[in-house]
Structure formats: structure tokens, C-alpha cells
Amino acid sequence: MATKLVELIGRENLWIVLSEVAAYLGISTRSIVLIDLWRVGVWVHRRHQLATIVSYRRLNCWIPVIRQAIANCQELNHLAQLRSVLEEEFNKCAEVYTSEVIEELQELIQTRQAQLEAEKAPRWKAEILMHGNLTMIQRCQTQAELDWLWEEMLKQDFYLRRYPNIRQELEQAMEQRSQYLQQKGSA
To answer: Global pTM?
Structure first.
């Protein structure tokens, strides 16, 4: 399973620290003659001993590498493959992935998927969001409602980020409504 994951991540994207490998093996870095990145793990040739293969999963850099791979995904199908392989990996190697790590990686995948979908979304989707939000802004009767709506709008921000003028229009509408509600409250 790690081999599929390594292929999706790309061995060139793995950054292995010699001291981390040495610490895992309980040896000095001077004892390591050569390391090589294989599909199955790090091949470590130690001075005066046989070579050893250390699973990538056993190294502290493994989870950060996965995080980076998720963040660097440029295609939805590649992200879907990564998600699928990770789900198999979570089931197979439960001792490596804590529930917190699993939750974090799944969240990162969902966020990245939303970002990639938003990048492909045409402008009209952002405009639909804007017009729907403008209507909701005008219906807010209290500052608390307006604050809640702003928090909800921030969740959609990945759609609006590509179109700063649309976001700016929403921010202006929020500010105007906030001023109106303040004046209404002080009257």
C-alpha cells in the first residue's frame, strides 16, 4: 500500500533526513554509508553491517509529506486516487495513523477538493453566490444575524477568491447593512 502512496506522492517529493533515519535505527549518522529511496522504503547501507529497509511510514516526515502531497494536487482525479489509497492505508496501518491524523488528512483532502472545484467553477457560480448572499444580507435584522452570515460566507470564500470585485461588493453590502443596523439600534 505504501508503494501506491509513494507512487502518487512521487519519490522526488520525499524529503528524508539522515539523522531521522539514524535515530529510528538507533545508530549514529556516521554509521550510515548510503541511503536510497525505494518504492517500499528507505534502503540504508550501514557501515560493517547488512543493508536495512526502513518503511517510510516509520519516519516522522511521512505525515508532513502526505500533507504536502495533498496541498500540491493539481487535478481532481489525482486527489481522488490519493484519497482512495489513503483510506486503504488507514485501514491497513491503523497503528501509524492516529484518529486525529486521519481526521486532519481527510479534512485537508476535502478542502483541497473544494479549492480545485472552485478553480474550475465559472464566474456565474460566484455571481449566484453573491446575489443569494446579497439577498440574505438585506434580510438580516440584527448584528448577530449579520455576523453569523459573514461566517457562513467565509466558508464559501474559495469560490469568491478568484473574483475580488464580487467579494468586495459583498463586503461593502455587509458594511452598509451593519451601519444601517447600528443606526436603527441607536434611533
So the answer is: 0.61
